[in-house]
């Protein structure tokens, strides 16, 4: 049921019928079929209500106050990881580390007691995932 | 040296002693909590003392008999054989014994009464009620359950990442030994259930309805987990 929902969301959000295909430790294909927008991705990463990334991560954002230290620094993420690898880490990092504390931004699998306002919704849409991936891919040093 | 290393190892294997959220606050906030004239929670304690007299609590209890009560709550209610917390007990005294209308659990008069009663135990070590083993176990399971759209458990923050920074906030070990307490963010006194609701909503999970048994189970586990700490009520937190 959850899987069907996720597939449905994909359909609505991105116009792609199949669930993301994982190859090795990556999702090579764009979830929407087209590349994301890095500037929009940056805004999502910095937004503490949408991306929430800086709750846990710090990154090369000298003007941002209050960055978290629960997770690796995002600087150089695009040099360490390919777009496909970044995409899988955003979609569902549990596939690489079942105990990860990083939320799965594009999966509804196994969630418990989700708040009413958030039910049936992934944290980000397919388009937003692509925007964030495009931004992270550009963090080269 | 060897002895030190052995002691350190023992502490690790036994689980280090719990650290109150007080320990990781700024020196300014610690000073505010310590100084009764600066601690805003003391204003509520004073209100609670006035209410205690006005509401006739004294016709059944001496204030001195309240010493140590908060240190052993939540406790087993003998009549119903269910675990109840201090707020539930105060509500029960009013409604069942005094025949008065219920006080809303989060409204100022209840918080003030609870703060006054809890304050009588300040400095006393927590003595979790051993009869609450079932609730404690249920609470521990809830503490370890990943939940909400962000899929995080209490333990992932408060056991695994205590002391680290979640954005600007230092994650405390999540001990409940200072409630009700004054939070700067709330600009007022708040209950433990309010804190738990905030943490639950923070991971985009559905909070339990007010007064749900899950809260008391979590409270029973938190009390056992904080064993070794003393009551700080009314504490101050950022």
Automatic annotation (TrEMBL), chain A:
GO molecular function, one term: metal ion binding
Magnesium in keyword set: no
Classification via InterPro entries: Cyt_c-like_dom, Cyt_c-like_dom_sf, Thiosulf_SoxX
Lineage: superkingdom: Bacteria
Gene: soxX
Domain Cytochrome c: 36-140
Keyword annotations: Heme, Iron, Metal-binding, Signal
Name of the protein in its database record: Sulfur oxidation c-type cytochrome SoxX
Heme in keyword set: yes
Leader sequence residues: 1-18
SUPFAM superfamilies: Cytochrome c
Transmembrane annotation, as ranges: none
UniProtKB/TrEMBL annotation, chain B:
Family designation: Belongs to the SoxA family.
SUPFAM superfamilies: Cytochrome c
Protein name: L-cysteine S-thiosulfotransferase subunit SoxA
Superkingdom, taxonomy of origin: Bacteria
InterPro entries to which the protein is assigned, alphabetical: Cyt_c-like_dom, Cyt_c-like_dom_sf, SoxA
Cofactor(s) recorded in Swiss-Prot or TrEMBL: heme
Cofactor: binding comment: Binds 2 heme groups per subunit.
Domain Cytochrome c residue range list: 134-226
Record's keyword terms, sorted: Electron transport, Heme, Iron, Metal-binding, Periplasm, Signal, Transferase, Transport
GO molecular function: electron transfer activity; heme binding; metal ion binding; oxidoreductase activity, acting on a sulfur group of donors, cytochrome as acceptor; transferase activity
Organism: Dankookia rubra
KW Transport (keyword) present: yes
């Amino acid at each position: 049921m959850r899987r069907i929902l996720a597939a449905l969301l994909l359909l609505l959000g991105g116009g792609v019928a199949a669930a993301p295909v994982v190859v090795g430790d990556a999702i090579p294909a764009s979830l929407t079929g087209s590349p994301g927008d890095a500037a929009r991705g940056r805004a999502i990463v910095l937004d503490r209500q949408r991306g929430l990334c800086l709750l846990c991560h710090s990154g090369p954002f000298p003007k941002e106050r209050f960055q978290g230290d629960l997770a690796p620094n995002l600087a150089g993420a695009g040099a360490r990881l390919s777009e496909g690898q970044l995409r899988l880490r955003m979609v569902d990092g549990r596939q690489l580390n079942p105990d990860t504390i990083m939320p799965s931004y594009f999966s509804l699998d196994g969630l418990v007691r989700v708040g009413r306002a958030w039910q049936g919704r992934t944290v980000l849409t397919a388009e937003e995932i692509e925007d964030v991936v495009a931004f992270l891919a550009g963090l080269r040093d | 040296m060897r002895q030190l290393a052995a002691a350190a190892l023992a502490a690790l294997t036994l689980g280090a002693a719990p650290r109150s959220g007080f320990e990781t606050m700024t020196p300014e906030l610690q000073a505010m909590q310590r100084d009764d004239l600066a601690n805003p929670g003391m204003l509520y304690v004073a209100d609670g003392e006035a209410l205690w007299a006005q509401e006739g609590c004294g016709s059944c209890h001496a204030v001195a008999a309240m010493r140590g009560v908060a240190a052993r709550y939540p406790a087993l209610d003998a009549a119903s054989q269910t675990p109840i917390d201090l707020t539930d007990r105060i509500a029960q005294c009013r409604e069942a014994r005094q025949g008065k209308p219920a006080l809303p659990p989060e409204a100022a008069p209840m918080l003030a009464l609870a703060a006054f009663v809890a304050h009588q135990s300040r400095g006393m070590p927590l003595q979790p009620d051993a009869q609450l083993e079932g609730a404690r176990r249920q609470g521990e399971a809830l503490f370890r359950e990943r939940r909400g759209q962000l899929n995080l458990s209490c333990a992932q923050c408060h056991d695994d990442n205590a002391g680290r920074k979640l954005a600007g906030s230092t994650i405390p070990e999540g001990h409940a030994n200072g409630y009700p307490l004054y939070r700067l963010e709330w600009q007022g006194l708040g209950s433990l259930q309010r804190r738990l609701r905030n943490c639950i909503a923070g991971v985009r999970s559905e909070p339990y309805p007010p007064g749900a048994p899950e809260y008391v189970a979590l409270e029973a586990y938190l009390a056992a987990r904080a064993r070794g700490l003393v009551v700080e009520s009314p504490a101050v937190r950022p």
